[in-house]
Design brief:
Layout (H helix, E strand, L loop, with lengths): L20 H6 L15 E5 L3 E5 L5 E6 L7 E6 L5 E5 L4 E5 L5 E4 L7 E6 L5 E5 L16 E4 L5 E5 L9 E4 L5 E5 L4 E6 L4 E8 L5 E8 L5 E7 L8 E4 L5 E5 L12 E6 L5 E6 L5 E5 L5 E5 L2 H5 L8 E4 L7 H5 L2 H4 L3
Antiparallel strand pairs: 1-2, 1-24, 2-3, 4-5, 5-6, 6-7, 8-9, 9-10, 10-11, 12-13, 13-14, 14-15, 16-17, 17-18, 18-19, 20-21, 21-22, 22-23
């Protein structure tokens, strides 16, 4: 399959009237009283320690603020009840909001530039960190870069996958124990959480100077990853790999260049199983793209400036009901559960 470059539609907010019947029905759930994030809603991490919450039709529902004075929120995870966990990268914090969007405070402590968080078994969470710190309290200078935590933020287990620049973005495979991750390099790494052991790399990007950022696994074993650039590289795209680690598709919104001077960064799969969201640095836009055809379904252009609230980067995307292939598998992994 070949995906041709997508021409961006130059509008300030969401493109309307582009949803087909399948997408529309997938985004028409029964409302949950009291929940800010309804099924299909998007939580977008941006500058100035904020998270924008949008409806599937592009309505800005609320701006969540961590109140930390930091600059960057990053990866987030929407909890089963509609609450939100979001990492505070430059504040070395993990923040929790309840289902109404009220800030509950910080979760856990001792973090070191956490960038990603995903659900694991029994409402536990895995947190990827970029910088060095010993959150286990053991004094071990080989600082853990990946941590399994309970719902209250207390640490259960720490892991030390091989890395280039910390454990950047993470996701679980369908077996619930194989972690796929990026480390701001060409490599998509793999780690066995049940055995606490490094596995052979899954794949590598095929162009020097391109960096792998946010990633998500597909039900067929494939991987989607957003790519950015290092100095001197202008090409950027979302890469789709098959289950054998072979790159099959490049998706390039707006030809991959004009809107993304620093590359694509954020990525997530929509719960319809047929589309994904991605955004670049700085300030978006936020694109929704059909997986099979590469068709641009919708976008939000230049998030922060167009809304007049300030911000510098789109650094994370979560979708209520997003496709997480490893979430159910983690519950069935006795080796990992035994660690709690």
């Amino acid at each position: 399959m070949t995906i041709h470059p997508i021409s961006a539609l130059r509008v300030a907010m969401f493109v309307t009237g582009l949803f087909g019947g399948v997408l529309a029905s997938a985004q028409s759930p029964v409302p949950e009283p009291g929940a800010l994030l309804q099924n299909g809603d998007i939580a977008v991490s941006v500058g100035r320690a904020q998270v924008f919450v949008f409806s599937p039709t592009g309505e800005l529902k609320k701006i969540l603020k961590t109140g930390s004075g930091g600059q960057y929120t990053a990866g987030s995870s929407i909890q089963p009840d509609g609450g939100l966990l979001v990492t505070g990268f430059d504040q070395s914090a993990l923040y929790q909001f309840d289902r109404s969007g009220r800030l509950l405070g910080r979760l856990g402590s001792g973090w070191a530039a956490p960038e990603s968080v995903i659900p694991s078994a029994d409402q536990h969470y895995l947190v990827g960190q970029v910088e060095s710190n010993d959150i286990s309290g053991s004094g071990d200078t080989r600082a853990p870069k990946l941590s399994l935590i309970r719902p209250d933020g207390t640490a259960v287990q720490h892991f030390r996958p091989r890395f280039d620049r910390g454990i950047d973005w993470i996701d679980l495979a369908t077996d619930g124990r194989t972690l796929m991750y990026t480390s701001e390099s060409l490599i998509i790494g793999r780690y066995d959480l049940a055995l606490d052991a490094q596995l052979p790399d899954f794949a590598a990007l095929d162009r020097s100077g391109v960096i792998a950022y946010a990633l998500r696994l597909l039900p067929d074993g494939g991987v989607m990853v957003a790519t950015g650039r290092s100095s001197g590289t202008t090409d950027n795209y979302v890469a789709r790999f098959d289950a054998q680690g072979r790159m099959r598709v490049r998706y390039q919104p707006d030809n991959g260049r004009e809107f993304f001077p620093e590359g694509l960064f954020a990525l997530n799969l929509d719960g319809d199983g047929q589309s994904f969201w991605t955004a670049g640095l700085p300030d978006g836009p936020l694109y929704r793209i059909d997986l099979e055809s590469g068709k641009l379904l919708a976008l939000i252009s230049s998030l922060a400036p167009s809304l007049g609230v300030g911000g510098e980067y789109v650094t994370g995307i979560s979708v209520r009901g997003e496709l997480l292939v490893g979430a159910s598998g983690a519950v069935a992994c006795p080796q990992l559960q035994s660690r709690s």
